[in-house]
Amino acid sequence: MATRVEWHFNDVELERLLRDRNGPVGRMVRRVADRTASLARSYAPVDSGRLRASIRVKFRAGEREVKAWVYTNLDHGLYVHEGTGIYGPRGRPIRPRRGRFLVFPGEDGRLVFAREVRGQRPQRFLLRALENASPWPVDDTVIYT
């Protein structure tokens, strides 16, 4: 004789568990996002402190999912995180678009003239923070929105 198992789900309760911002899944997602933001602030490189101070969390519970974003709204945050020049997505040195030289202030404050620069190595402070804060596996694929 075969054994038969039936499952009956309470759809309303399942909805509350999975999609309510104050349900267990929503609380866990918010906790991981807040922890990620806190770690990202400590891992972010500091020059003036603007990048570190700009790290934010956005949380949304919708019909089918609970999502959180940890991000910075500063344009240069992407360049710091992903790298530039030979270290960045294009893998090429940075050269002037117009003129013969790049001109920028050096570390000592004096102007530097260069035909090309190698760029900046990536400093993946957001990814590192997520890896250390998340109880789930982290895919290191970066998605820009």
Task: Round the mean pLDDT to the nearest integer and report it.
Answer: 89
Structural class: alpha+beta
- Strand line-up of the largest beta sheet: 1-2
Low-confidence stretches: none
Strand tally, please?
Answer: 4
Instruction: Give the N-terminus to C-terminus distance in angstroms.
Output: 56 Å
Determine the strand fraction and express it as a percent band: 15-25%
How is the main sheet built? 2 strands, antiparallel
Question: Helical percent range?
Answer: 25-40%
What's the structural domain tally? 2
Supply Rg: 22 Å
Question: Which descriptors apply to this entry?
Answer:
single chain; 145 residues; alpha+beta; two-stranded antiparallel ribbon; 5 helices; 4 strands
How would you characterize the overall build of this protein?
The chain has 2 domains: 11-73 and 123-137; 84-121, no CATH class. The longest helix is centred in the N-terminal third of the chain and has 20 residues, at 24-43. The protein is α+β, with helices and mostly antiparallel strands and 145 residues long. It has 5 helices and 4 strands; from the N terminus they run αααββαββα. The strands form 2 sheets. A two-stranded antiparallel ribbon has the order 1-2. Strands 3-4 form a two-stranded antiparallel sheet. α2 crosses α5 (125-133). β3 and β4 (111-114) form a beta hairpin.
